Structures are given as C-alpha cells and as structure tokens.
## 1
Amino acid sequence: MKADVKPKPVVGGEVATGDVLLAVDNVSLSFGGVRAIRGVSFDIRKGEIRAIIGPNGAGKTSMLNVINGFYHPQEGTITYKGVRRRDMRPYIAASQGIARTFQNVALFKGMTTLDNIMTGRTLKMRRGLLAHALHYGPARWEETRHREAVEQIIDFLEIAHIRRTPVGRLPYGLQKRVELGRALAMEPELLLLDEPMAGMNLEEKQDMCRFILTTKDTFNTTIALIEHDMGVVMDLSDRVVVLDYGRKIADGTPAEVQGNQDVIDAYLGVAR
Amino acid sequence: MELLYKIFVDPFVQMGGAPDLLVQTLWEGFVSGVLYSLIALGFVLIFKASGVFNFAQGIMVVFAALTLVGLYQKGVPAFVALGLTILVMLALAVAVERLVLKPLVNQPDIILFMATFGLTYLLIGLGQLLFGGEPKVMIAQELFLPKGSIDFPMLGGFVSLQKIDIAAAVIASAMVAGLAVFFQRTRIGRALRAVADSHKAALSVGISLEQIWVIVWFASGIVALTTGIMWGARSQVEFSLQIIALKALPVLILGGFTSIPGAIVGGIIIGVGEKLGEFYWGPLLGNGIESWLAYVIALVFLLFRPQGLFGEKIIERV
C-alpha cells in the first residue's frame, strides 16, 4: 500500500467525505481447497465510486459477499464506519447502511416493481407486528410515508410505467433497474453494485451510468462497483482496485491502473 | 346403459327427490372442507416462507391437541392449559428454527423435507412419552364450545346442524381471514413473500430469515392447535388423526402450494366433493370412496393445471 496520503480513520458515527468508510484488511477466504481471496486489503472512501475489476474468477463477487456478510473470511478484518469486525453479518450490513445488487439479479419475481422496492424499506419501518396486522392509524401512516419515498425512487429511475408489473415479466435491463431501486430505497451509505451493466445494450448502459452518477451526486452515496466494461469503469470510477486469482495486483486511479503492467498481463495473458 | 344411468342420471334424481338430504350432505362436506382448508393453510404458510413441505404438519395437529388435553388431565384449568399450549407451540417454532432450519440453511429442499420426517417421529415419541398414547376426549365443553345440534325444517324435510360444526366453520373462517390479512397487507407479509422468492435478496435488504421462520412456524402451530381442537371435538384426540393431514395434499394440489385463497377453496371443493361422491356415487363402487376420491380429483387437476387453481404461475426466463 502506498504510504503517502493516508486518510484519517474515523471511529463510529458520521464519516466525512473523503474519509475511509470501509476498509478490508488482509482478508482471505477459501472454500475447501479453493482460495477465492488471498490477503487482500483496500479501502473505500466516503463519497467515491470505487471500482473492483479483474478477470473472471478473480474473487470480485466473493469480495462483495464478504463486505455485506454473506461470506465469512477465515482471515482478516473488515472495518466499517470505524468499527472493526472479524466478519460482517447480512443483517448488520443492511441495518448499518450497506445495500447491494446482484450479478444475476436477485429480485422477488412474483412481486410487483412497487412491492420489490418497498422491501427495501423493511428496516426503516418500525411499527410493531400487531399494529401492522391491524393496519391501524400509525402503521397505515407509516406505510404511506414510505410509499412516497418509494415513488420518488420510481420516478428517478424512470420506471413508473412498470410499477404494477410483476418483475418476473420484465426484460433484463429493467429488472436491473428495479434491483437498483430496491437498494436505493434503503437509503444506503455504501452501495455495492455487482456488474450493473451486464447484458445491457449501449443505451441501457448509458442510462445506468447516469443513474449511478446522479445517485452519488445527489445522495452523496459511496459506491463500490464490479464491472467488466472498461469504458464504463474508466469513466465512472474515482479509484480502481484490480484483483487476479484472489490477489490484489493494482490499486489506484483509473489512469494509474490502466498503465500498470501487471494489470495488462492479467487481462491479456503473458508468456512465462 | 344401466350403468350410465346410475352414474349420470340417478344421483341427480336422488338429489332432486330429497333436497334436504342434499343440503345436509353439502353442509357436512363444507365443514370437513373448512377443516381441510385449515390444515392446508398450515402447509402453505411454511411452504411459502421456507420452500419446505412440512411433513410434520399432521402430527403438529395431534401434538397440539394432545398437549391441551394432557395438561388439562394433569389438573391445569382449561384456559390456562390453552395458554400453555400456545406457548408450547411458540417454543416448538423457536426450536425448529434453531435446531432444524438454521443448521440446514441453503441445503436442497429434499434435505429439509426429510428433516420434517424426523420432526414427525420426534413429536410422536414426545407426545406419547408426556401424555400417553391412548385416545383422549377433547375438552370441548370446558372451552365453551357448544354441544348438541340444531334441527330445522327445510325443503320438506329437516336439516340437522351440529353446533360444534357451526363453531368450527365460524372459527376457521375467522382464522383464515385473519391470516390472509396478516400475510397480504402487512410488511411481514411482504417480507414473507420476499423470503419465498429469494433468500439472498431478502437478507440483503435486512429481512431476518430467523424471524420470518419463527413467525410462520408459530402461525402454523396455532393453525394446527385450532384444527386439533375442532377435529378432536368431532371425534377423539388420537395419533391416527395425523392421517387427515394427508388429505391436505390433494387440497394443496388443487389450490396451489403457495396460495392462501387456494387452500381455502381447495379444501372446500375436496370436502364437498368427497361427501357428495360418497353419498350419491359411493354405492355404485361398493362405498368407501371417500378415502380416495380426493386424490383422484387432485390427479385430474395435475393433468390440466399443475400450478393449481390459484397458484402463482411459474415464470421462467430461458
């Protein structure tokens, strides 16, 4: 790791723009004999778009799964908002403001766009079970208030026309958008996007880029994204970390990474 | 020719000839249908939330009823026993979540299905150990359930309604309506449907699988207790009661495994169909068709509408 500008770490509470929001330190993860991640360290700073790139099987998705607690690394620590942990738990991640989307779209297929995005408000709804069951005053009022927030997201993502459609029927590009909407409904501090443009045509990619940039600018959301489209990565991201065979091989600005010989070798192959 | 007459004409002539008998048969079919619905509802709740076909649903009915009567026989006042039984069902839900579902999370469905077999035998053993295996009489009167029957003249004859059947129909309907509202209109309902669709996506938005599982197992425990009380009051509380739970299978095929309204309508169709079949067509086949007719109806349904009457159509992208 470079020793120069080391942003000061924060202990608990609010994280100012530019400070470290999340740091993974020396994380290793293996499944039986397969070592998916080997001693990787990097950080994500508040307010930036951090890209994670690398060839297939480099451990990018595994890394996101470690960050939001789906996988528990055998070694290393994860420091989020100044709290250092051996591993994350999905519930803690969600309640602490980490939202994510999935590589192969994990939506609730039988539910409508609106209901899917409403699930993103789960942790924001605080009325008791009984109140909801009876659907009485405050619970109903709460539902309405959250509906408003969700409608704003729907407008922002330009998916008003499909709000009542079961998402299983939607084309892939729109499903990805609904999934982003569900993550945004959580009002996340850290948004993890796993290949948000995969399988999209040029126009859809441009739309998605616009949504990502607007999200960052409007809500000051920190974003970590995995993406294979290098054009997108270079345009969007502030800093890039490159993984190959579970190891970190480069870390820096898009320009730095682009010129790095290890990265070029990893992508193009090298005669040894 | 005579056979065709007996199948297609004679039963309807009989129905027309004695409409009071028809009403009586329909009513009896309706009541057992409502009880089938309740059992099926227990299955649907668990299946929706965890994708598990809970083989132990039948024994949960028996176990709940047995606990209630057993506690009463040990000298606990009836309503205290009822409260305690509810707590026992809650404890069972928590135990199942901790000891069965959680360790087996992400395992194939068949593994979880087999685990519910294990649960079945555990509950049979536990029930016998604690309260003995002999048939017991449901404490219907102590719980202020009505007894006797109301006869009223109708359509040139008279129809006799057991009061306990009326109570069963009313309580079951109230319960079904309550659960339907709870699971359709609340955030828990949304969370439940979310969990049914995708575990990882549900986790990523902060839905707690543990909480949902305990809720659905507890809900189906309460449904089991209600069924146990009603069915026990109509006959006896005994271990063979769990066989009626198998009747829920055709109900589920008819109604769809994931649909609460489906479980209700399916149960009533099966209940009424069974009784009508037994009464009007049974003699043709030497009676006793009640025990298998439901399965035949389900089989026919599987051929034409595999997702059931109300089942969610499976949308698969390829």
Note: The beta strands of chain B are 149-154, 157-162.
## 2
Amino acid sequence: MTLLAHSDVIHRCFRCGFCKLTYDYGAEGFNCPIYHRFRLETYSPGGLMWLTRGCLIDHDLEWGPHLSHILFSCTMCGNCAEQCRFDFKTHLLDIFRSVREEAVETQRPLPPKVAQFLENVYLYGNPYREAKDVRSDWVEELGVRRFSKGDEFLYYVGCVGSYDSRARKAAKALATLLLEAGVSFGILGSQEQCDGNEVKHLGESGLFEVLRDGNVRVFRDLGVKKIVTLSPHSYNAFKKDYPQEFEVCHYTQLLRDLIEQGRLKPGQQPQITVTYHDPCFLGRHNEEYDAPREVLRALPGIDLVEMARYGKNAFCCGGGGGNFYTGISASGKERASIARVREAAATGASVLAVACPICLTMLEDALKSEWLDESLVVKDISEIAAESVKGHRAVVDPLRRSKGG
Amino acid sequence: MEYRELVRSLVEIVGEDYVSDNPEELYIYARDSGTEGPRRVDCVAMPRTVQEVQGIVLLANERCIPVTPMGANLTLNGLALPNKGGLVLDMKRMDRILELNRMARYVVVEAGVTQGMLGSYLEKNSPDLEHSRPEAPAMATVVGNIMIRGHGYLSLRYGNNAHMTNGMEVVLPTGEICNIGSLSVSPWPFCKGPLPDLTGLFCGWHGTTGIVTKLSLKLFPRRRLLDVVGFICTDLELIPELLRAITHTDMADNVFVIGSALADARGPVQFITISITGDLEEELEYKRAVFRKMAAEFGDGSGTVKFMKDVPDLLKTRFVEKPPFVSPALAADFDKGGGYRYCGAILPTWQIPSGWKKGMDIARRHHKHYFYGIQVLGYGHSVMFGFVYTFNRADRSSVRDTSDAMKETNTMVLELGGIPWKAEASAQSDIVARMDANTLGLITRIRKVLDPNGIMNPGNWEV
C-alpha cells in the first residue's frame, strides 16, 4: 500500500502519546523501543507520523540523513498499533512501512547500514554477505537432511539461525528435537535464501517480491506443504505475505504438539526459574502468546515467572525492522535490549527464555554488556527443551540398554 | 553561529544524544496538537538531572537565550512552544519517582514523571492512595499539570491541583537551585510549612519564573468502591442550583456537566455525572438514594431533572476505569480530523447558563458542533467550563476557524467575569489588558527580580 493510500489518515494523529505506553501505563518505562532509546519526540510513533506528513505531504521539511535515521529507526514492534486509542491504529505500521517504500522507490538517501543490508540481501540472499553454501554448515554433525519430496515439514532456518554463531545453537537444538521426535523434515541448505520479512519492513518491496517469488518457486518445486520456522520473522512473512498454500507454524507451536503427543519426552532438570520474552513478530504481530509458555510449563523443573511487561505489553528487544543488523536504535546504553535484560533480572529468574534468534542475539549481547551474565543466561526455548529431552534420554537410554532395548 | 556554539556547550552538559538543532527536531518541537504554531525553535535539550538543568540555565542566562521548559506539550494552547525562539528544554528524561511517604501521604516526582507512570506506580505500591488525576492523556506530566494550575478528579474536594503540592525544587532563571516549602527547612517535603507560600511564584506563571525539577505532591485516601450516578437536566437555568445542591451533600467526589450537539438533537440536554465512593456497598447505596431523592424533588418535581437509571458506558468508563481510558482525548478525532482545542474557562457557577448559550452561538457562527465538559472545582467555588472545538488538521480553513472560535470564546469568557485557563498568548493579552494595573505591575516586577535577563519563556504574561 502506498503512502498516498493513507493520506486521509496521516493528519489524524494527535500525538497524545498512548502509543509510547503499555496498557497499564507502566512505571517500568516507555514501551516504544525507539522513544525509550532516543527520548526525543521525533523518535516516537507520533513523531514519525508528523514528520512523514511534514516531509512527504505538506513538503515543509526536506528529506535528509537525520530524517532518514529517524524513519528507519522504528523496529516495527507493533506496540503503537496495540496501544493507540484511535480507529486508525491499524494503519500505523503500514504508514511507517510506506514511507520507507517511498524513500526506496524515489531513491532518497537511506541510512548507510540500511542500504548495505538491502544490497547484501540482493547480492547474497542474506544480510551477512555470506556464501549460500555455508548456510547449512552446522547440520553435518547432526545428520539433518535436505528436504525431499515426501518430507512432512520444511524446517526453514532463516538467515540469523543459519549464519549467526549464537543463533546457530538454537537452530541446532531445534533440529535435534525434531530428530528426537521422529519428525519427517528437511532443510533447504544452500537453496534457502532470506524470507524477506525485514526487507519488506525496510521498504524494499521490489526485492521482497523477488525473494518471495524465489522462495515460493523452490517450495513448490520441492513439494513443500508444511513449514516450521525457527524465527517468528520468517513465520510472519510466510503467514501474511506469501501465498496461503503452505501450512506454516512457529517451532514453539510444533514443540507444544510434539510434547502433547508424547513424541518428545522432557526429563526432570534441576529446579530453575525462567522468564519468557515475547518476540514481537510472534506475539503482537501474530497473537501467539501461549505456545511458548505451554512448552516451558511442560518442562519439569521450570518455574515460569513473568516480567513486568509481557504478552501484549511486552517490550521489544530492539532488533526488529532490520535493527539487529543496522543498529540504528539498537546501539548505546539506553537501547531497548539493556532495559529488557534488567527487567528480566528483576524477576529473579536465572534463565531468560526467548523464541526468536534475533531476540536471542540482542538480549545476550545486552546481558554481557550489563555484566548480568553470571546471574542470568539467555536461552532459546529450543535449547531449553533440548536439554530437558536430553536429560530424559540420559535416564532412559541406560535402562533400555540394560534391558537389551 | 551563536546557536552552534550553544549546541556544543549543551552537548558537554547533557551528552550528544540529548541535544539537537536538526531540522526534524526543530520541526516537531515547534508544534503542538492545537492550532498555535509553528514557532521558531533554535535547539532542543533533554536534561537528566537538576545539575544539568542548572548548567543549561546558567549558560542561557549568560548569553540571554530564551528557554522554554516542556513537559508532554499537551496544553493544546502552545504554552510549551517558544514565543521568541531559543532553547526548548524537554524535561521528560527526568522521570524518576523519588519517594513515597505513605504516612504523610505524599510522593516526590521529577519533572518528567507522567500521570500514567504515577497512577501505575501507586496502583502497585500503595493502592489505598491516589493523586488528583487530570482529564488528560496518560503522557501528560504531573509537574506540567501543577504548573498550569490544572485540576483533576479530586479537585471537587481538595481544590485546584496546584493546591496539592507540598513544595518543589526549582532552578531559578539565574541558576540557583531553590527548595520551596518544608524542604527548605526540614529533611522532608511534607508540607508548605508555616512559611511564606512561594509555590505561588511558579504555579500559573507558564515557566516564566523558573524551572521546576522536582515536586512533592499530596496523595489522598482512595476508597475501595467507585461508581457514577447521573442526572439528566433539560432546564439549563437550573444547573447552578442543582450543582450547589449536589456539592452541598458532601457526598460527591467529582461532578461533571456534559453537553454536546451530537447527543442533543431535541434541544439542550445536560448530563450531570456524579462520582461517588465508599468502602462498603451500603455506603454507595445510601449515596445513590440521596441523589435519587434529590432528582425527584428538584425543580418541584416537574421532571426537568431525572435520575439516570443507567449511566451510559461512555460516561461511566470515563470516570471509573482504572487505569483511565481518558475518552476526552478521543474528541480529537470526532470529525476524523485529528484536531482538538478547548477554552477551559474558570467561571463562577452561576454563569454556566450564559456561557452555555453564548458558546452555542459561537459554535454555530463557526459551523462547529458544540461540545461542553464542565468540571465542578472545590465544592462549586468555581467551575472549569470546557468549550471544545474539533478541527481537521489537514484543512487550513478548519484550523483557522477553530483559532477564531477560540478567540471569540476567550473574549466571551472574560465578559462573563471568568478567566480562560492555560491561556494562549492572545488570551493572555486579553487577560492582561483587563488586569488591575497594580497587579500587572507587581507581576512584572517579580519577573524582573527573578529573571533579570528575561530568558524564561518570554512572551508570556507580558504587556
């Protein structure tokens, strides 16, 4: 949708500021990650609305590097659309995305890191400038196969899970769980390329279409029917922006089912307190708040506690909208991820559970820079579940062997 | 050049992230949600501590640079927009709640603490206490509300919110940090003290006498139960007496009169909402019975006053919901135009009927629906009569028309013996023009003493 399509809406923002808050206007702080980070009124949903109008509709303001920085800082976390009191709330994210589209289409200067991100994805199929054939280096030791016709699930790993060394551990953990449960699945390996979620949110709709069409072609050629994603960002793209012919689930939804069906058997672990961080693209964007919690609750020894901001009120890690790469709003001591790990630490939990490879890397970095990593660890739910299942096997396997099983 | 140097100095005080003279920040800080502006802004800074505020003020005073302190910029009347350029101080980074004293029932907040933050904090830490919450979005700041002599949901019992401060910490225009109230003598900001009441040097002055960085706010008992009962009154002339009767029971916690052209196709109908509180349901039931009886007997039982069997949800949630939804903010989008202004006229109660009729005339002349919200202050010592005008922000003629309607309303209010609240620059001129010359002279002399270089939000309360 173009910015023009929103021209009868964009002036209606009053800048009342509810968009910066949680439902209870929490004393924990502002819930808009860019306002939290920068604190200038420009870096807020209302600021973005007024600047957009000033520059692109009223032409009172010229496009420049600072405006570009502001407009591309938004993480697309969706808190504003959740909290806005007006009926045009459903337009907010579309407007922010449309502005970026307009900037890309009219070749206005983009923040250098944004331009670099898009160029990398265009040239390499991933933002890291990595070769496609190293995408699946991590699977060799596990015996994970390439997807072939007849496999039930395509395990779509995504760029962060494939290339980031920390996120790879989560990708591996999920693979071991799927193998353990006897799920029929395969990966795309070097055929996998970016899902395009961040590309779309950064306004490069043309590149997004190329990625989407390429992925769909591969899925169809291979006979893919069901997709399980490691990342909520991939889940969001496949579910909302791809043809509806594929059945898509986030891995926590599949793990919940596998545990319920008894195909995964968690084992008793030492008692630990865990708090869970809702990823924006799983929670607010797709309203999946339960599956990750149900998985955690099904793991013996875990005491689940909530942070002050959770569910619809959850505070973004600051990495969405490409920020995990561009770093526009994800740098500095006041970045959202720092506040989030402090909030997690305040619960007394020893584990901060996530269900997104981007959140995993953002929050782990923040934990280290806050020197909180001795009292708190960040783990993906796939890793926590894998440890639990491994614990079960450690008990069961010797028994089986002793019985000749 | 002068401002480039200033920016460099400001960066040394508050850090690079919190100073800007970029066109984008200047654009946003030059505007508010009403029809005033845009104004010239030369740079923006966001201090975190009182020492940073002091450093900035010393710098500005030395160079005679205008300083405009800003909370949430939600007055709608341009009070946090500079009249003469210079530096806008966005105070919202000073956002700590520093002390809660349950025994003496006060809380100490920094200048950037919002109404929402404080409400949420009290809900969590002391749900038996509350502050006088204004009808404003949750982002509105506590200190800003006091500085504009705002009012809130406890103003019927305890008066204007500015009466609810025990004192404050202020950075004077010449840079001294000054404690006002008991804190000037005692370790605790628990009262204004039997001292000269200096809070009056800062409340209602629109930031022209100093920058409040910290404030001690009185809290009040919060009853367990809250309900809203209501009257419908079809005789406008009865309203003042009716309000007198309601407030005289000492059973109402908050009283509003609400009227609008949209709800009122058959002629003026006034809704009167009365918030009642108690610790027992029996207490509430007794209060309901008192007001039911009052409605039946009022106007000699002619039926011009009716007790509402069920108060409409929209009216009820406005006063009952916790945390508040603050439906008045929604008025901004009645016409899908995103614009909203109101003249908050402080009037004597008996002028309600005249104000009502004259306001309708003004609305009609400017092709607007009329929306009224009248809040009874201090047992009917006065009312805040809100004449609300919505407009389409994208339509310049609609903006202009609203601005004109506001000017006419301000004049009408003054003619009725009232005073426009949080008056914009033109309304201040109208007020000052009618002010007793010696009073105006006193105001001018006080400002000159406190702010010899005239740096603090100049253009306000001036001849």
Note: The two ends of chain B are 31 Å apart (CA to CA).
